[in-house]
Amino acid sequence: MKRFPTAASAEHAGYVRYTTVDDSGAISYANCEWTSRDPAHPSQLWYDTGGHLLGADYSIPLATHPSRPNVWGVNPGRWAKFDGHQHWVARDPKSGKLVYEGWMPDAKFAAGGGNVTVWDLTVWVKPNPNGAFAVYNPTVSTHADGSHDFDFEFGAWNVRIAQRLHPLSGAAQWTHYNGTHVVYKIWSGQANYGVMEIDGPRGHVEGMQTRIYDPSTNQWSLRFASSSDGDLGAPSVGQFSGGKGVFYSHDTMSGRAVLVRTTTSNMTHDAYRDDIAVSPDNGKTWTTYWRAQYTRRASAPPLPADTAQGQGRGFDFEFGSWKAQLKRLLHPLSGSHEWANYSGISVVHKIWNGRANIGELDLNGPAGRIHGLSLRLYSPQTKQWSVYWANAKGGGITTPLVGGFHNGRGYFMDRETFDGKPILARFVFTFSGPNAFQIVQSFSPDNGKTWEPNWISAFTRS
C-alpha cells in the first residue's frame, strides 16, 4: 500500500476514480483490470475527501474460483460474495464535468450477457477498531478531518522554482531558483511552518509559510512572510480534495486587485509540487507565475532551538524550552475579577538566524486547555517586531502587536476590537535574570488612559 499513499499516486499508476463519497466515507478508484490476485495491485483503492489512503478491495471472479479463495494467509471466511454489477463514469456534454455513480445491477448486466459476481476482500489501511477486514470503519467520516492533510510535507526538501517576473503583462520572462525547504510540525500536525532558502540570478531569498487548520470549517489558512520586509501576507484559504489542495487569496499586484490561487498536487512520499496562479478578472482567466517542484532530501534537521541566555538581540533570550504559569482574566473589561490559572510549557524555535521565531504554548487548567502559537517577525525597514497569535481552536492568526525592546523591557501595542468596541492592546516583557521573564497583556478602553491586565504569564527555563 506504500505505493499508493494519495489519490494522485493511484491515478498516476492507472487507477480510475468512479464514485463520489460512499456511505463508508470513501471515494473509490478502480484498477482497470478490475480483478486482481496480486497483493501489490488491489482491485480498488479508497481515499478520504482529502485524498489520503483508507484501504483497498481485492476481487476474484466466482467463475474462476467457485469456493472462497485461500491466499496470502488470510482466513477464507474473510472473503464475501459480491453480486455482479457494473460502474461507469461519464462526462456531461453541457458542463464538461465528470459524473460519477453510473451503476447497473447484476440482473440487468447478466441479461446483457455479463456475469462478474466476485469474491471480495475488504482491507482497511486506516486503523479500524472493528478490525482490518470489517465493512465499515467508525473512525472515517464523510466529512473527513483534514487536520493531517499536510503530514506528507514534514521533513527536508530540495526545491526547484520557476518564477514568471511580470505575470500581468503577458510577457513570458522567467527566472529560476534552487534551494531547500524544511517543514516542521506544530500542534501534532494541525499547524506547521516551512522555512525556505533559495538562490538565483536575482539573489538570495529567505521565506516562511505558516499553515493553520481550522477545525470548525475543515479548511487551511496559508500565510507567507519574507525576511526582506518581515510582513505576513494575506491568508490563502482552502482545502484538499481529490488528491490536491487548492487555496485562494485576494491580493494586489502591479497596483491591481487580483485573485491568487495556490495548488498543491502530485503528492507522494518523496515529491510534490506547488503552482501559484493569478487572475485579474475574478477567476475567469489565470496566469501561472510560480512553479515549485520538491524532492525529499532527508529527515528534517533538529529544530534550531538555540539556548541563548540573557537579554540578547530581540527575542534571542527566548529560544528553547520553558516552564509556564499563567493567570487569565476570564471576562476582560466587564468589571469581573474572576481569574483562571494554567500551567504548562512553551518552546520557541529560531528562524532566519533569529530575525523570526515561532513559539508553541501548551497550557492546562481547570478552565480548559490553551494551545497557542506565537509568530514574531522582524522588519529591517522599521527595526520593529510584529507579534502574531493563533489558537488551535480558531485556526486564524490575529492582527499583530508591533514594537520592540528598549532599556531591558519589551513593549508591543495594537488597536483592536473587543466585544464590538475599539480598544488598545499591550504586551509588556520584563526580565528576572537570564532564566526567567514575564509577559503581561492589558487592554485599554479609553485610548491608553487606563489599563486592565488580563493575561499574566511567568516563564522559567526548563
Topology:
Blueprint: H1 7-12, E1 16-17, E2 27-30, E3 44-47, E4 53-61, E5 80-82, E6 86-91, E7 98-104, H2 106-111, E8 118-124, E9 155-164, E10 174-186, E11 191-200, E12 203-214, E13 219-226, E14 236-241, E15 244-253, E16 256-265, E17 271-279, E18 287-298, E19 320-329, E20 339-351, E21 356-365, E22 368-379, E23 384-391, E24 401-406, E25 409-418, E26 421-431, E27 436-444, E28 452-461
Antiparallel strand pairs: 1-2, 2-3, 3-4, 4-8, 5-8, 6-7, 9-10, 9-18, 10-11, 11-12, 12-13, 13-14, 14-15, 15-16, 16-17, 17-18, 19-20, 19-28, 20-21, 21-22, 22-23, 23-24, 24-25, 25-26, 26-27, 27-28
Give a brief rundown of this model.
With 462 residues, the chain is mostly beta strands. It has 2 helices and 28 strands.
Task: Record keyword descriptors for this entry.
single chain; 462 residues; mainly beta; Lipocalin; 3 domains; ten-stranded antiparallel β-barrel; ten-stranded antiparallel beta barrel; 3% helix; globular
Range of strand content: over 45%
CATH class call of the largest domain: Mainly Beta
Second rung of CATH, namely the architecture of the largest domain: Beta Barrel
Helix proportion range: under 10%
Query: Termini, distance in Å?
Result: 42 Å
Overall pLDDT score? 86
Query: How many domains in all?
Result: 3
Total helical segments = 2
- Unreliable runs: 305-312
Give the biggest beta sheet. Answer: 10 strands, antiparallel, barrel
Rounded to an integer in angstroms, the radius of gyration calculated over CA atoms is 27 Å
Question: Strands of the largest sheet, in order across it?
Answer: 9-10-11-12-13-14-15-16-17-18
- Please count the beta strands (DSSP E, at least 2 residues each): 28
Kindly report the CATH topology of the largest domain: Lipocalin
- In CATH terms, the superfamily of the largest domain is Calycin beta-barrel core domain
